[in-house]
Specification:
189 residues, homodimer, 5 helices
Chain lengths: 189, 189
Amino acid sequence: MDELKKRILQDGRVLNDQVLKVDRFLNHQIDVDLMDRMGHAFFDHYRDSGITRVLTVESSGIAVACSVARRFQVPVVFARKTRSLTMVDDQYTAEVFSFTRQKKFTIMLNKRFLESDDRVLLVDDFLAKGQALLGLINIVHQSGATLSGAAIVIEKAFQEGGRLVRAVGVEVYSLARIASLKNGKVLFS
Amino acid sequence: MDELKKRILQDGRVLNDQVLKVDRFLNHQIDVDLMDRMGHAFFDHYRDSGITRVLTVESSGIAVACSVARRFQVPVVFARKTRSLTMVDDQYTAEVFSFTRQKKFTIMLNKRFLESDDRVLLVDDFLAKGQALLGLINIVHQSGATLSGAAIVIEKAFQEGGRLVRAVGVEVYSLARIASLKNGKVLFS
């Protein structure tokens, strides 16, 4: 998606050869019009997949997941990373290690909100080492729902996540694939 | 907002006389069309306030904040509750105690994303004891920005948050105000 690539070049910051910071428009400050155009691009790609639910994990995936779901006219469900006193129902759970937070999370999803006849589209802002996405895939498998694919805003193609997720048979559609962040420069695939 | 009140009566669950669970449409599974209509209602109320930024805190406020911001054609910024290795800039911070999670958080906002000439609308899904909203108000005051008000989906009017927030001079506009959850029943103000 050309608009996204231009925006990454304009407003992204390369912190080191592993980390691209896009907090000006994607995951801290949010450009809602860009979100909607990305939602439309994902809809175009998956429009014939019969999607019934969009699944993401808090927090950075929620904005783009809502934009995708609006196009499909289906609900969003987001997995939780922290337990609350009000979680009284049975939950699907999966273990996820976050490298940026250096912490293991248990992600949780109320079993009411994912059923075996659902067709699920996963959505997230980044695909890097793939841990969050593999956790969501695990939860979809537990539910017996059909997994239609993963819609990713930015894939760091030089890290292993994309390979790991595709290796378990999940189609990944990324709007921007980054081949390298070496020497402070963003190089797209 | 009648549609929201009907939805609360239809899909909300009263866990006890303090807790209303609305995870079917608001803060775990999300009804994106309802979000948009709520965004429109908030826009109608604050349309003459010259809003330049919508501020919320992760995670449950993000979806409705995006719907509000789309109407105003301004960015959303969401405060973070957990520190990441990629947070390299100066942050505004405030301490917040969450009763549902029984935990103290430091909420953080990159100083780049809130400026003294901003006119800010706060958005959140719930106003109960007011801790999260008071933390956001603290951050807006630190930034020197003008606070135009707070847009709340559900205010539990029998808890102290609304009173505390209004006592510091912040206008609160809630789409549904709940007077009581006693005897398993939702009673609106």
